[in-house]
Design a protein that fits this description.
The complex is a heterodimer. By secondary structure, chain A is mainly α. Chain A has one domain. Chain A has twelve helices and no strands. In chain A, helix 4 runs parallel beside helix 8, helix 7 crosses helix 8 and helix 8 packs antiparallel against helix 11. The two termini of chain A are 24 Å apart. The mean pLDDT of chain A is 92. Chain B is α/β, with parallel strands linked by helices. Chain B has one domain: Rossmann fold (3-Layer(aba) Sandwich), CATH 3.40.50.300. In chain B, 40% of the residues lie in helices and 24% in strands. Chain B has ten helices and ten strands. Chain B has a six-stranded mixed beta sheet, sandwiched between helices. The chains are: A mainly alpha, B alpha/beta. Chains A and B meet through helix 1 and helix 6 of A and helix 2 and helix 3 of B.
Chain lengths: 248, 267
Amino acid sequence: MKTVYILWLRQMIRFKRSGLRMVMSIVQPLVYFLTLGYGFNALFQQAGKGSYIQFIVPGVVAQTILFTSIFWGINIMWDKQFGFLKETLVAPVSRIKVMLGGSLGGATIAVIQGLMLFVIALLFGFHPYSWAMLGMTFLAMILLAIAMVSFSSGVGAVVNDMQGFMAMTNFLVIPLFFLSSALFPLDNVPVLMKVIASCNPLTYAVDAMRGSLVNQSHFGLPTDFAVMGATAVLLIWFSVYRFNRIEA
Amino acid sequence: METIISVKSVTKKYKDVTAVDNISFDVYRGEIFGFLGPNGAGKSTTIKMLTTLQHPTEGALFLAGNNVSTAQDAARKTFGIVFQDPSLDDELTANENMQLHAALYNLDKKLAKERTAELLKLVELWDRKDSRVKTFSGGMKRRLEIARGLLHHPKILFLDEPTLGLDAQTRNLLWNYIQKLNEQEEMTIFFTTHYLGEAEAIADRIAIIDHGKLVAMGNIEELKKQTEADSLETAYLALTGKGVRDESLGTGDARKDIYRRIIANRR
């Protein structure tokens, strides 16, 4: 546990010292929240769907977490390129702990940024339907962050081409975000879109957050958490497997 | 004499390239052992296998009796290493890098603090302990890496080209300190270098590797006698030839070009 803690702490210290970068990654979701939120609010209400601002907050919180965590692998690649990873690989600690320490660090950062956006949304008038359900929202945020950070670290562990990694991740993140329920309800979309969105783990994270924050859930919380939990376990396993294959 | 490093018929292949070709040697406890060879000869690959970063294709390696492939953690506890490329966290301070290392090696907090102070004073970085590593010069970073590699009092210290790019003063300080450790703590030192003068001055025994094979091993007198040379350098050139090598493996950074030029200038 000491190993996992110290490697997590390392990420926290680095995050604290990263200055502006710490808040930069919430700018994009914030722009989505403000422009789409206020832009579509009237339209959404006319369609009888209630407040779009209420609807979109879970989506942009998930977006914040997704963007930070899916690029996390860059940190692993950086450590590999500039050597620090070797220090941990020759130490008498298991690769699993090395992977977990870093990943939990990345997940914590992603969740903190998600919470920042949530607080800003509160200042703009967002109100959860039940404060008691906030724990569920938090759990969904953690599961999403852990799943995506693990995926990204797993890829970063064995890939050496940083530009390739960035290109691949960019290629992945946009469809992942837009083909989820982050920005629109899944009730009346074309079937194909619904099918794709139903295969997207982000959909379930957003759905769990939306269910617990504004009481609008498409799949229901038990399904959401089951899918998210399974995804997280699978991706952690993937990452551990890939970390065990690192040769420096 | 007690054997502390043992390499038994080790081969390492990458696809169709054989980086290390059936080498065997022993290093004894308390020795300063120089491992020399031209670029791409298999030095770094051997160190990587000894330090559990890579697995041998065939054969086995032992550190203080622990097989590095099957008893990894036990083997890892026995050594400290200063890598050829820096492996510090630049965003952390010198002290934080030390504390992180202490935690990875499960050292007691109080002990870690005492040793950190002692080591950082020794490498003359104590007054910079709370500065971030990214503000350090190359020599300071190298000194910090050495201090860090010693923090858990390893039985064996691996040094992969430890003096590369350092000025004469720092090189001198470093070797003096390493010799002191070797004498006082009976620490075994396994190092590579391209500065043959350094190897001649400090090593008890030397192994020369070329094209993945051991071409010579012994103390300096033996190597000179074997090649009828008057210095280690002429012996080395007699054994490995004068042709400049292409780096077929390894990390391939710009530094390799510098080595090439260093060797070229020495002719």
